[in-house]
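Quick one: co-fold with serine.
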Amino acid sequence: MKQLTSKELRATYLNFFAARGHAVIKSASLIPENDPTVLFTTAGMHPLVPYLSGEKHPAGRRLTDVQKCVRTGDIDEVGDSSHCTFFEMLGNWSLGDYFKKESIGWSYELLTKELGIDPARLAVSVFAGDEDCARDEESASLWQQNGIPADRIFYLPKKNNWWGPAGETGPCGPDTEIFIDTGKPKCSPDCSPACSCGKYLEIWNNVFMQFHKNADGTFSPLKQKNVDTGMGLERTVCVLNGLQSVYETDLFAPAIATIARLSGTTYGAEAESTRAMRVIADHIRTATMMLGDENGIVPSNVNQGYILRRLIRRAVRFARVINLPDDGIVEVAKVYIEQYREVYPEIGQNADKIVLELSKEAAKFQTTLAQGIKEFEKVIGYLPPECKRLSGKAAFRLYDTFGFPIEMTQELAAEKGYDVDIKGYSKAFEEHQAKSRAGAEQTFKGGLADHAEATSRLHTATHLMNAALRTLLDPNIRQRGSNITAERLRFDFNFDRPLTPDEIKAVEDWVNAAIKADVEIVCEEMPIEAAREKGAMGVFDNKYGDVVKVYTMGEFSCEICGGPHAKRTGELGHFKIVKEQSSSAGIRRIKAILEY
Ligand code: SER
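Sure, here it is.
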C-alpha cells in the first residue's frame, strides 16, 4: 500500500480520472445555491443534481473533483475514530456516458495499481434487488472479472446498497460499495459489510444513478444512466497509512498537536480528553470551512447559522473539559487556515473573517457557559430522585439566558442519565415567539421535485431582478449571494444605501414588464470569452471551466448560469419585493416572491 499524504491522494485521484477523459472541476460551495432541499452540500453529486437529471454540463459528460462536504446528522458521534462533520469527497461522474463496466474497472485499477492496495484486502457489496430495481448481477460479475472472488461479494438490500437522493427527492440509484477488510475475525458466520463490528471499512461508493425519487416515494427512470462515485479523503488516507483513526492523519494532526500543546493534554492518553480533543479538532475545522466558504455564513439562530453556532459552542464546551485556554480554538482555526488555503483559496481570502467571527461567537458563549452549567446542575439537583427528566421550561431558560443550544442541553442531560422534555421546550419556545430552528428542520424536510418548478421560476426571476437593478440603479451592481427556497428568492448585491420606495416599485415594474412580454428563455453553451463578448453577466466565472451556459431572456437579461430555468418569462406570475434591507457593509439584500 502506498502511504500517500492527503495532498498526494487528491492529486493521484484527479490525475487518474483526468487521464481517462474526465474534466477536473472545482469544488462547489458548501452552501448550496438555489437548492432548498438541504442546508449544506453533503456529497460531490449534490451540486451536479441538474446534470444527473439531464441538463447538459458545460465541462462535458465525464467529470471529477474534490468536493467540500458537511454532514451534521451525526454530530453526537464525533469524537470516535471515524466520524467527521466536514470531509472532502473525491468523486468521478459519468453524465449519461460510461456505466458499470468502466466504473468498476477503474475503481479496481485505481485501488490496486495506483494506491497499491492488496486485492485480497478488498470486499464489495452490490444491490440485492427488490420491486424497484433488479438484483445487480452485472456488477457482481464485473467485480469477479476484475479479480474479486465470489465470497467477497455481498448482496445487500436497499437499506445498505442504495444511495440518494440528497434531500427527500431527486436522483438516486443502486450502488456498489468498496470496503477494506481490516483483517479482524468475522464477528459471526453472517458477518458482512452491513455489519458494524468494524471488520469492513467502506472507502468508496459507486452509485448507478438511474432513478428519480418522487415526493410520493415512487421511483421514475431518469433521462440518462449516470455514475456517481464518492471516496472519503480522510478515511482513505487513514487506511493507506495504517492509522487507527482519521485524527492521526495529516489532515488533523497539526490541529491536534496545537490543542495538545495549548491545553497540556496528551492525545490518546485517556479516553475522555482524547474525545474532547477530537471534538474540538473536528468542529473548529468545520466552522473554519463554513465561515471561510465562498458563500460563507455566520453564526445565528436559524438554518445553516444555527448549525455553525452549535458546532462552535460545542467546541467551547469541550475546550473547558481539557482546560484549553479561551483563545485556543481560534489558534486551532489558524492552523486550519494555513493548511487549507492552498487547496481552497477562499479560506485564505477569508482568513480575517474566520478569526473575527469565531472569536466573537466563542467569546459570547464563554461568558455564559460556566453559569449555564451551574444552573443546569442546580435544576438537576432539585429534581426528586425518581424524576429523570429535565423540564422544557428549564431547557428553554438554558437556551434563552445562557445560549445553550437544545442539543447541548440534551447531551449534558444524557451524560447524567436524564432526558429533556422536548415538547415542553418547544412550547416554551413558541410562547416566547423566538425564532426557532424549525426553519432548519423545514428545510431538511422540503423536497426538490415538487418544488422544482417553483424554484426554477424564482431562479429566473432572480436573473430578471439582477438585470433590473443594473439597468435602473447602477450598472456596477453584481450578485453577491443568492438563495432560493420554493417560497421566495433572496438576493444580495453591492449597493451602498437603502433603495427608496419608488426605486423598489420601479424594479418590480421592470421585472413584471419582462414577465408580461413572455419571452422565450434561451440556453446556449459557449466558451467563456464568447459569453463575455456577448455581454453576459458572469455570476459563476471560472466555476465550470472554459465552456459556460448562457441564459438569455430577450432583451431583458443575459447571464452565465448553470440553470435550470423556466421556459418562458410568462410562466412567472406577479413579481413582488417583500423586503429590502442591509446584509453587511455595502451589501443590500432583497427578498421577493412570485404571486399567482
Ligand atoms: N453520492 C454517493 C455518496 O455520497 C457517491 O458519491 O456516497
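If it helps, The chain is about 40% helix and 20% strand.
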